[in-house]
Amino acid sequence: MENLAQYIDHTLLRPDATAKEIEQLCQEARKHEFHSVCVNSSRVAQAYALLADTQILVCSVVGFPLGSMDTDAKRYETELAVDLGAEEIDMVLNVGKLKDGEDKFIFREFRDVVEAADDRAVKVILETCLLTREEIIRACKLAVESGARFVKTSTGFSKAGATIEDVKLMRETVGKDFGVKASGGIRDRATAEAMIGAGATRLGTSSGIAIVTGKSGMAAY
Fold first, then answer.
1. Residues 40, 75: Cα–Cα separation, whole Å
2. What is the Cα–Cα distance from 209 to 143, expressed in whole angstroms?
3. Staple partner for 179: which of 73, 150, 184, 221, CB 3.0–4.6 Å?
4. Which residue of the set 74, 123, 166, 181 is catalytic?
5. Among 9, 90, 123, 166, the one annotated catalytic
6. Active-site entry in 74, 123, 152, 166
7. Residue 37: which CATH number?
8. What is the pLDDT of residues 116-164, one digit of tens each?
9. Which domain holds residue 128?
10. pLDDT in tens, 82-123
11. What whole-number distance in Å separates Cα of residue 110 and Cα of residue 44?
């Protein structure tokens, strides 16, 4: 598959990631021309400065990795990340509220983050390993209605990551024109291509170098 690098959000979200490792992440993104780097909000300014003269985007996670904090905290983190240079936002769903059946709350929260992102792409992280099939469908529909641009499988910090079955279900639910990001456990080219074949239009991985070259790169998440 050509241009596989352009599917990849080159990711480093470990809590112990250092400034030197973020610099390495950005250097790797430059070399391999990945779509973006995905970092925690405290690292957005550094990544943005390192990539300012490139077409590589800076993506920030919000409400990461649990998603269970107050909506105002997610909105503020989004605004802050945008001010620091974030060009995409990956926000974690409040899984418990979805399971409570509070769809109006979920929609409003999605909408609040979309508004705070100010026309930047918002990807809603569902954490599919914690959801039933029906809950995945509901969350996907709410994401589409809210103005978000992607649904994303996983944080990479829960009990499992992306599966082919979940990516297919998400694609079927959101339709052909909405973004689907597969993330969590994608560490080789065969898995990456299988996720794309199932309907993913973006891949979140810290194994981007291994995927595009067969050589090891950053440590997983």
1. 15
2. 31
3. 150
4. 181
5. 90
6. 152
7. 3.20.20.70
8. 999 999 999 999 999 999 999 999 999 999 999 999 999 999 999 999 9
9. 4-213
10. 999 999 999 999 999 999 999 999 999 999 999 999 999 999
11. 21
CA-angle at 121, arms to 130 and 184, nearest 5°: 35
60 lies in some domain: yes
In this structure, is residue 218 part of a structural domain? no
Instruction: Say whether 119 is catalytic.
Output: no
Cβ neighbors of 84 (< 8 A, separation 6 or more) are 41, 44, 45, 48, 60
Give the N- to C-terminal CA distance of the chain in Å, as an integer. Answer: 24
The two tokens of residue 200 are 């993913």
SS3 221: coil
Torsion of CA 106, 110, 115, 119, to 10 degrees: -160
Residue 181 lies in a domain: yes
The tally of domains found in the chain comes to 1
Q: For the residues of 108-136, what is the DSSP string, one character each?
A: HHHHHHHHHHTTSEEEEE--GGGS-HHHH
Decide if 90 is catalytic.
Answer: yes
- Known catalytic residue at 176: no
Residue 221 is assigned to a structural domain of this protein: no
Contact between 142 and 107 under an 8 Å Cβ cutoff? The reply is: yes
